[in-house]
Amino acid sequence: MRPIDKVMHFLIHNGFLFTVIVMCLVHVTLLAIFSFAGVEPLVTFNIISVIVYVFSILLCKYGKIMPVYVSIILEVTIYTIYSTHYIGLRCGTYCFLFSIVPIIIYFGAFLFKGKQRWIIVGMLVLNFSIFILLYTGYALVEPIYDLEPSIKLTLVIFSSFVMVFSTIFYNTIYIYSSELDVKNLEIRNQRLSADAREDVLTTLLNRRGFLPLMEPLMKGSKTDEFCVAFCDIDDFKRVNDSYGHEAGDEVLRHITTLMRKEMQGCDICRWGGEEIVILMKDCNLEDAKEKLEALRKSIETVPTVFYNKQIFVTITIGVEKFVDTYKAPEEIIKKADNRMYYGKQHGKNILIFEDLA
């Protein structure tokens, strides 16, 4: 991956955190300007703003995105009104209202779905209405603090820079992420057309590609040992309902990565939905139990990171070793599935390796 791609990928998946850090730095700069100019009310306000954004950084770390989104919009709106009241329109602080328009749209599209997206339209209308009210209400009003021309020019340039930067930055990452989605879709479609044995989302084997791998093992030497594990992500519907289907897809990709790391040398199949089957060749039951328990713990402790959110999930696993009474791959898979289902009914996040009922 090119360095620019790494940077853009980081910004896309850490957009909220980056935004909050930048906003904090903006108010640190404004704090310095107003301290130099002697505008005490705005010095106090910017100190409060810096504290708000420091707290918002912590919220981002814990995945509390909605409060951060609301805080940014409220803080910038109140700051614009407050600063216009004290230093007037000619200092250009109203530009901050326009700087949050891309933020309202970009992050709002992620946070709100379906009819909720009318909330975005409402916020944009409110944003523009506040600008009109400020412009008409303070056009002929003398400011409380009449700043020196050099400080006014500094504020105008700085406010305009923040507005332009915001517009360019969020449009850039939106365009990049859109292009990336299109490219990934094209690659997946090509792969699907070329090899129908792979699952498009996870690039794991599908049933068509997986089952033929088991048949030669079952017909081979009776001394050959192998095991089959049936895994199911616990409460996966809750992930989709709470975070959206895009987050659910990211969880599946994340678990796939962990499985490939922990189960090297094994064939892994996305059986369907959140169900995954693992073929462990040249492996007895004791070794299989050890490897699968390590996998279960890894998935339990390593969260999926999705737009600054940490999503923790667990899996329930059933495992069965091959014996010559099994005549078809589906039979041993069914046995592992039954054990997994037993685990689901008795607490989840567990490995079941023998019949308990």
Task: Explain the overall architecture.
The longest helix has 46 residues, at 149-194. Helix 1 (3-13) crosses helix 8 (149-194) and helix 3 (40-61) packs antiparallel against helix 4. The protein has helices at residues 3-13, 15-37, 40-61, 65-87, 95-99, 101-111, 118-138, 149-194, 207-219, 236-243, 245-262, 285-301, 329-345, and strands spanning 226-233, 267-272, 275-281, 304-306, 309-311, 315-321, 351-352. Strand 4 and strand 5 form a beta hairpin. It starts with a helix and ends in a 5-residue tail after the last strand. Helix content is 66%, strand content 10%. The protein has a five-stranded mixed sheet with strand order 2-3-1-6-7. Strands 4-5 form a two-stranded antiparallel sheet. By secondary structure, the chain is α+β, with helices and mostly antiparallel strands.
- The pLDDT mean sits at 90
Q: Give the terminus-to-terminus CA distance.
A: 50 Å
Q: Give helix and strand order, one letter per element, not per position.
A: HHHHHHHHHEHHEEHEEEHE
Give the strand content. Answer: 5-15%
Computed Rg: 28 Å
Strand order of the largest sheet: 2-3-1-6-7
Sheet bearing the most strands, described?
5 strands, mixed
Could you list the spans in which at least 5 consecutive residues all have pLDDT below 50? none
Helix content: 55-70%
Note the overall shape. Answer: elongated
- Counting DSSP H or I runs of 4 or more residues, the number of helices is 13
Class from helix and strand fractions: alpha+beta
Number of strands: 7
